Each structure stands twice: as structure tokens, then as C-alpha cells.
Amino acid sequence: MAKSPRYNKLHICGPGLSICCSLISVWGIIMLAIVGGLLSAKSAAFIEDIPEVEEHSLSYEERLNKGFDLAATNCYGAVGLYAACLIFCGIQVFFNIKAASMKN
Question: Cys-Cys with 13: which of 19, 45, 56, 92 at CB 3.0–4.6 Å?
Fold first, then answer.
């Protein structure tokens, strides 16, 4: 059975790559969500990883809190990127399953 032109445009990754990227995306979402949550809770374990905020009008504690918030926001942004990658790879997995069923 011939593939439709629409299918050819949307099918980009093979089955192994799409499953691998999906698993890596799930791991990235879980890991970065946990790190972002810990940064939002201002965990002391991340004190050395906090970017320094160069606003001299703020006290040290305010600058530290702002740095924690900035780092947590960066983690949540990366979670969003991993979620987009997971959606894309999930669609590719679906197309690969569909292609395998067309061959049979």
C-alpha cells in the first residue's frame, strides 16, 4: 500500500529514534520539574548554582531569592521544551506504528 503525501511530510524520525527521544524527554521533564520545585522552595543544596543578581539596591537575601526564582524559571522553561519534544516524538511513534500496520 502506498504512503499518502501527507504522511510523507509528517513522518521524520524512525521507530528507534522516536522512542528513544520520547524516553529522554520523559526523563528530562521529571528531573527538571523536581529541580525547579526544589529551586522554588529555595533549597540550600543549590546555593552554589544560583546566579548572582547585580542589583545593589537589594539586600543579600533579596538578591538570593531573586536568583532562586530566576533559576527555577529557567528549569520550568526547559520542562516546556522537553514537553514539546515529547509531543513531537509521540506523534512520530504513532506514525511509525501506523506505518508498521500498513505493511502488514
Answer: 92
